[in-house]
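Budget justification note: compute hours in this period were largely spent on complex prediction jobs such as the one shown. Inputs:
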Amino acid sequence: MTLPLRLALWASLAGVMVLPLALVVSLGLGANHLPELIDQGLLTATANSLVSSLLSAVGAVIIGTLMAFLLDRTDLPGRGALRLLLLTPLFIPPFIGAIAWSGLLTDGGLLDRLFGFAPWNFYGGPGVIFLLTLHAYPMAYFVVAAALRRIPAELEEASRLSGARTTRTHLDVTLPLIRPAMAAAFTLTFVSGIGDFGIPVIVGLPAGYETLSTMVYRFLESGSVVSPLQTVSQIGVVLLLIGVLGTLLDRQVTKGSVEFGGTGRPAAPQALGRSRLPLAVVAWTVSVLVTLAPLVGLAVRALLPAPGVPLTLETATLDNFRRALTASTTIDGVTNSVVLALGAALVCGVLGLLVGLFTTRLAGRDREPLLMSVLLPQAVPGLVIATGWLILGRYTGLFNTRWVILGAYVTAFTAIVVQTVRGPLAGIHSSMEEAARIGGAKALRSRIDTSVRMALPAAGIGSVMVAVTAVRELTLSVLLVAPGTQTLGVVIFQYQRAGDYNASSALSVVLMAVGLLVLAAFGARYTRPDTGSDAPSGRIRA
Amino acid sequence: MVQIGSGRVSRSVGRRAVLASVAVFAAGALGLAGCSEPAAPGSGEGTASSEASGEVTLYTSEPQAKIDEIISAFNEEQPGIEVKVFRAGTGDLKARIEAEKTTGGVAADILLAADVPTFEDYKDQNLFQEFQPSETDALSDVAIDPDGFYVGTRIIPTVIAYNTTEITEPPTSWAELTEPEYADRIILPNPDVSGAAAFNAAAWSLQPDLGEEWIEQLGANNPQVAESNGPVSQAVAEGSRPVGIVVDYLVRDLAAQGSPIAVSYPSEGVPYITQPGAVFADAPNPEAAKLFLDFLVSKKGQEIAVDQSYLPVREDAGSPEGAPALADIALFDQDLEAIAASRDDAVAAFNAAVR
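Corresponding output:
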């Protein structure tokens, strides 16, 4: 019974995970378009991609680490609420964040309108780095905070007993212990920065700042090259290599990790003393800013009847909401996105649970390749996965249907479920399964009746995460849409691109509000310190 | 062993496993190596129907809200026809058509976008089937294709737009835009994306009093290049770039909604396109497609166009509010063949000058 299931699982993984990426590689190696690519600015785009992701990853790790120390190790007032507020960028798709912040800071934005000066016309590299950092630091926080919580109190206490002061202890004891986590956070955010499309396309491109992902989009959408798919696949190979290298490097760096002994009792929060108040003011200001500022930036544009009109109570209108929400393309987009998100949640849930089961509870030599085949796509930029499905779609005739988008979602998001179920599955005591075996159940049956059942809630949460991620996704679907299969993300993106900022902002406000509600409903349970290891810090693509 | 919170990749996975996994992917890749660019599926799947019902697919660069409005008016007359829209910039549409054409056939019924040279080009490639609008006599000459393959649906001049709070004395000629006072203040659309902008690049460079020299001087004023006409009009209305080179109807649209924006028709005349519509040769539902095009240029259809701030292609449809009569606008005398022939070079020269 186990073998057929294992084979079926491998077959589906080969089709959904391995094949699309293998197609990109094989097509990319099929011919040499490098001279053409270099002529089109490949080197600049590569440099821009590397620099922006590197700087934003460094920024994200610094902010995430500071945040982890402040929120998890000190007596800062209102830590729980601060944590929720500071995590909101994770629940706002990056392209929506880009739309929002540009509506706030730039020429003609809200501040310009109110006070007659635009603090930062951030189009171009600096804006891309700022926004990438903003949307990456919550992930860095999750990773670092989880490691921080696992450091037994005894180690720091020993240091303090030996006479070291707090700062000394942090530098000499705590920091080295969380260094692997910081490295992991760096790779995670770096790879996610390389793959991001929404931010560079909305903030970078208007100033001519091209990254690898916007270059891929340009080749596929405004056909200036002869065989766009092959050319793009070559860029895909480069991105794939960067992703794989990042993962391997990550592994190398984190190899020297140690297992902690001791009671595992977390350290007591530290009194901040005199700096408590100023730090609280700073933390609260920042957290309110990152939550409210984009919402306000969007709301203003969404409420304006037309650009350039001063916003007063008389001019404010809900017309944009009515117009954007009732447009037939929006209705199509919502329908498609909901159907796709539910489909992806179902498929990813089943696949993820099976992979989790086979890689934790059932013996087999294929454990690790199985796990890697699911997790590797996560290190791969979304546009590469989309390109793989574009090619696969052409071969199979699925091109121009919703199925290619669903396939791409499964490739990209199954890892989220695997991550949520592996912890609980591994933690279940084998005595349960043994009891079932003694009761006469076969090997697989005994697992399904015990471990799988107990892991179902985790798989459910994972599936919800997949659905929430998929429903407002842009990077994957933007390359795969066809007449009638537009997703909600693409609809908003098209409004933005066509210059209808009032409509794109109105839809973004709605989407963001839904995201914040989800955060309030589901996010709260993940932001409690005690559930650290299960934190769903899977990369959110949008 | 530290279990990192992300659990992204279990730290217990060893190097051998990594190699094994890389091998799996490599094997997959090698197994498929050497495959060439795959073909798009054939588009002839839909069965051609002579009845005016079913589904038609429309590729268009019309703004979404406008095309939605037209379709719902069309459906009042033809409730049996479902029009599916794929909206994108002209550049994107051309890329899509190109990809579909080389690998099978275009998967749409109607193209409604861009300018005559683009349509002439497609006509020469036998991408269209013949189509004569039923009320040809009522239409303006510039809308009609003597060979009977496409029909112009609105007249879209490109003009100078300016923010009325920032600019008190608007520029009245193209030449004025090259003066130093407009340095860093101009915004214009990207000719790689906007069909009208690509057309204009050629039209300007062929104009004896402007020419490539004017384009170079304009480029020296460091204009910002927006993706398409929509963002240009937005930037002008918001005041981030107070002067824009943009299609006229967007300006009237925004002005009607209250934006501080107005149009200046330059004295040298204006380039214009006619946003033609045609039926693809492989159209799955040509009858319905023709009904839709006929509706676009009918009196009713043109009145909607006027309501949407477009200059119409027939006189009995009136004129949009705030627009001069077509006769009062100096239009470029456009040699469409020369424009078609020089467009790619003109776009390249334009990009070199303004970026």
